[in-house]
């Protein structure tokens, strides 16, 4: 498990929203660098608090 994934989980458990947004943003950047554009979009949308966008991305993925 990566440090960013661990950070995301701990921030979620402790309701540390600022830390969570940083972890999600950097997970999105890592996904982008790995060529996973759908993962990048989901992480960045989540970091911005865009739950509806995150749900739409998940729905789009399920249709692939």
From TrEMBL:
Domain of life, source organism:
Bacteria
Protein's recorded name: ANTAR domain-containing protein
